[in-house]
Design brief:
- By secondary structure, the protein is mainly α.
- The protein folds into three domains: about 90 residues, Annexin (Annexin V, domain 1, Orthogonal Bundle), CATH 1.10.220; about 120 residues, Annexin V, domain 1, CATH 1.10.220.10; about 60 residues, Annexin V, domain 1 (Orthogonal Bundle), CATH 1.10.220.10.
- The N terminus is likely disordered.
- GO terms for molecular function: calcium ion binding; calcium-dependent phospholipid binding; phosphatidylserine binding.
- Belongs to the annexin family.
- This is Annexin A14.
- Keywords: Annexin, Repeat.
Length: about 280
């Protein structure tokens, strides 16, 4: 493991991410090192710096690089580095908010084998489109757990289940609240939420809702299963987007699911160095 990681490790101890803000952060020094690395095609240095800085720090580096060189750092990377590694380094440099939107749209496109924007244009009145639109515009609204349980339960009492409350509640509450709501609903109906959704909804909306429920109830397990496929682009997106949040949880779920550590499973590919640097260590 890189010594720079140990130097910054204590700064954010207690978080569930593997990438933490680098305590001895000097963007000007990083820019100088990156410029030299780009000239010499030194991928080791590029990986060492970009995987040992938080996303916010990478944005500072990108701005400092542009001020110093009058060039965009992403464009410079694409000229100096190729293959899977450059794709990963570029994704590391995307601002967090933009990356989450990009990752969500890519995930939907992969899941349904469709272009998300075209799908929404072609199905603007469908429940699936409403669900995706609500997720894209997700906001957190305070509510009472018991009231939400009652609302979801009532939505299932008609001959046809009402998708509206499911879309509204599952896309506008925080994770802890939603977990309590779904647990309460399971107790009341004596079925798992997955069984409820399977029986009462159909089509793309059912699939989307089941994925959303899995992500709420067991996000680490859900993502560990996705990582198990070892599909290059999917692995890359998960590693980058969860590196500062909960990759330790995903690592724990992965070893429980497969019997092997994620670090061991990643011992392949051209961008091995960067993926292992994000993963950090064996379990």
């Amino acid at each position: 493991m890189d010594s720079e990681y140990f130097n910054s490790y204590n700064m954010c101890w207690g978080t569930l991410g593997t990438v933490r803000p680098f305590s001895n952060f000097h963007p000007d020094r990083d820019v100088m090192a990156i410029k030299a690395a780009l000239e010499n095609k030194d991928t080791v240095t590029l990986v060492r710096i970009l995987t040992n800085r938080s996303n916010a720090q990478r944005q500072v580096i990108a701005e400092a690089f542009k001020a110093s060189t009058q060039k965009d750092i992403v464009t410079a990377l694409k000229k100096a580095v190729s293959g899977d590694l450059v794709l990963l380094l570029v994704e590391l440099l995307i601002p967090s908010v933009e990356y989450e939107a990009y990752r969500f749209q890519e995930a939907m496109a992969v899941m349904y084998n469709k272009d998300l924007e075209k799908e929404l244009q072609g199905e603007t009145s469908g429940d699936f489109a409403k669900l995706v639109t609500a997720l894209l515009n997700k906001d957190c609204v305070a509510a009472a757990v018991q009231k939400d349980i009652e609302t979801l339960s009532a939505s299932l009492k008609g001959k046809k289940a009402d998708a509206g409350p499911w879309i509204d509640i599952l896309t506008s509450r925080d994770l802890d609240h939603l977990n309590n709501v779904l647990i309460g609903l399971e107790v009341e109906l004596e079925q798992t939420v997955d069984q409820i959704v399977e029986k009462r909804f159909t089509g793309d909306f059912r699939l989307g809702l089941k994925v959303l429920v899995q992500c709420i109830q067991s996000p680490g397990v859900y993502l560990a299963k996705k990582l198990q496929t070892m599909k290059k682009e999917l692995v890359q997106r998960i590693m980058v987007s969860h590196s500062e949040e909960d990759l330790l949880c995903i690592r724990a779920a992965f070893i429980k699911l497969t019997g092997n550590s994620l670090y061991t499973a990643l011992q392949v590919g051209d961008h091995l160095q960067a993926l292992l640097a994000i993963c950090r260590s064996e379990d």
